Fold:
Amino acid sequence: MEELKGLGVSPGVALGAAVCMEMAEDGVIRIPLEPGAVDAEVRRLYEAVETTREELAVTRGKARQAVGEELASVFDAHALLLTDRALLGRIERRIRDKKVNAEWAVHKTGEELGERFETIDAPHLRERFEDLRDVTRYLLRCLQGLDHHHDISEVEGEVVIIAHDLTPSQAVRLGRGRVVGFAVETGGPTSHTAIIARALDVPLVAGLPGVVSRVPQQTPVMVDGDLGVVVLDPSGERIAGYHSAVRRRGQRDSDRAATSALPCESRDGVKISLLANIELLEEIAQARRYGAEGVGLYRSEFLYIERTPELPDEDEHLAVYRRLLETMSPHPVIVRTLDLGGRKLAREVLHTEEDNPVLGLRGIRLTMARPEIFRVQLRGLFRAALHGPLSIMLPMVTTVAEIREFRTFAGEILDELRRDGTACCEDYRLGVMIEVPSAALTADSLVKEVDFVSIGTNDLIQYALAVDRNNEHVSYLYQPLHPSILRMIRFVLDAAGEAEVDVSLCGEMGSDAAAAALLVGMGLRSISLSPRMIPEVKTRIRQMNVAQMARVAAECLSRGSAEEVEELLTRASELESPVD
Ligand code: PEP
Ligand code: MG
Structure:
């Protein structure tokens, strides 16, 4: 037995057989094949080659019509590579020798050849390298779209995934299968992978450097997301502890659900609205179970993340938003426009390569830069608005101009819908996320342009404290209670109050009962949070006295460090008079 200490970022305890994943940045996973499956896999490769060739011929034909023969001939190089025996033979050999899935063989072959190209000092070969990269991308796309593609569901039994890193889309795919736990080398508590693991109720321990090389495949592993530990080869005693933890959790879950009937009101009669943050549609049931009073944040980019490498079409957008509006009715639903970019699918879907993507083309910047993608989402949204009152929220806003630009673009989309006679509703409420310090500190101007704002502390903390929210090395500095954060929140609450604009908070800070109480003391009256966390936060609010907490909050705002604020909060909760 060996115990590894990490960071528990999704609660719960799981027990399963270790599967150490080799994963590429583009989401390709290595799947070991049984010897008998190798021939079929090679056939699958050639089937994909054939389909890719046919698709390329169609694309070439279209390009020829649009831009002429000369420019369309760039596709000839791609088509030629798809008949190249040396390249295809290399991929086939890898499948046969290493007994791996075709995707992995294509990816590794592309990577290996790319490394060779890099060592050759001949600029004219650069183009050839880019052709090769395009072709491996086409092939991968095609293999992933084939009906009989491989995925982790082929791995037998209850599985704990051990990986260097997991992207949110990998976490969605794995978490819906037979995976019971995750242990990863990187990551922090507000990473989107952690948010997904919590949404799917899969325990996750992050920040375990070197774990992939330390755990032999199939080792029994216990992942304890509450304590932040991973136990390799757990003793009989630890396994017994695991079974009683599972029983306790079941009991706690039904106790928590019972709180949904209780009003969310403080002891001195202040009513607080608790809404749900939703990434995956299965969370709607949880939102209802735990008594959410609406959806305060639907992270619509997960629609894209789940569909990758395809993009969702207008009807898919419509169906999802309609379902949200209808199932949550009569409560409000806020759909955040796609917040891709940053670490979320920038490369896979948008083919962007940025040195510093988190400070690059993400959120509203990306949507305005890619109107052809944004248009599809907005058409779906305005059509869905026929089925309930819709609120649209823009992510990563930093300037007033972005809001105005959006309104103009939305107006054009509505004109277009009107012109083509598509039924839609033109009424919507518009809001912005306050998740960048520049937005927080100009909230007094932003609120004049919108109907509501929502404070996104996950990014606000990242950008204000210069701490990558996915980086385990600096996670000790990721401090929601840092006075700079509290002061910015204070400014936003005041600006919204003055303009009589609704204000909510949808970062993970609102899921922490102590922080939520402080925020309520500061004057916040609406919090959107992971549905599973609603019972804890509601229980805390029902115990608190808001007037008393307002005094503590004022003191917190004058402190110089997160530690001092924390100390004040602990003292205040100890002094709180017991519940009547
Ligand atoms: C935030 O930044 O606080 C937020 C809610 O958005 P996301 O976590 O999706 O970046
Ligand atoms: Mg954000």
Summary: The chain has three domains: 2-25+152-253, 35-145, 262-574. Residues 395, 435, 456, 458-459 surround magnesium ion (ligand 2) (CB under 6 Å).
